[in-house]
Write a structure and sequence with these properties.
By secondary structure, the chain is mainly beta. It has two helices and 17 strands. Strand 8 and strand 9 form a beta hairpin.
Length: 205
């Protein structure tokens, strides 16, 4: 298992010259929280195995020193140059921007996944949601296996595999919720209910 540093230390695979934003994303105890780096900058992200795509708030993207392209807030709501996101009550909102270019999101020294685009939203509180576009398809040969608990010491873990499962990487999580469901072969795994403060269930395009 790949263990992560305690406190707010940056992980070994982060860049010393990049921002360390550990502790910025704090959605409460009901979520799986993974330590990742984006272009070398360290930050926690919410592991979402539901229907959401990967997204973050604009202020967090700026704190990570990512290059952004942002929607003019004076545009009418029906104008959505970066696509739309559907909120928990079914309301449709335009995305507020995107990160320019592909982004490398690393869960460990070996598991480095690239997303061609990350959408941005304006929120009152910091958010980085690691969604199904990152954790669904195979990327750079790695495929998401599960998120849950180590059956021996009940630490939160996230697992990836490649080469049809012959090569696996299990990484310790920063946080795992108290509620989980039992998965296959005795492993404890599942998705914690609820959404971050200030945000709701969503799907975007």
């Amino acid at each position: 298992m790949v263990e992560i540093p305690s406190g707010r230390e940056r992980p070994a695979w982060g860049k010393m010259t990049s921002p360390n934003c550990r502790g910025r994303v704090d959605p409460g105890p009901r979520h799986y929280l993974a330590l990742v780096t984006l272009q070398g900058a360290a930050v926690e992200g919410i592991v979402d195995t539901g229907a959401c795509r990967t997204m973050m708030d604009i202020d967090t993207a700026r704190a990570l020193q990512l290059e952004t392209e942002e929607r003019d807030p004076d545009l009418p709501l029906r104008t959505a140059p970066f696509g739309t996101v559907t909120g928990p009550a079914g309301e449709v909102h335009p995305y507020d921007g995107r990160v320019v270019g592909a982004v490398a999101i690393c869960f460990s020294p070996r598991v480095a996944l690239r997303l061609p685009e990350i959408k941005l939203v304006r929120l009152r509180e910091p958010l980085l949601l690691l969604g199904t576009d990152l954790l669904g398809p195979m990327r750079e040969g790695w495929g998401f296996m599960h998120v849950g608990y180590d059956p021996y010491d009940l630490r939160g873990i996230i697992g990836f595999s490649k080469d049809r499962g012959a090569d696996q990487e299990v990484v310790e999580l920063v946080q795992a919720p108290g509620a989980c469901i039992r998965g296959g072969e005795g492993d404890l795994q599942g998705f914690a209910g609820g959404y971050p403060r200030g945000w709701g269930g969503c799907c975007g395009r």
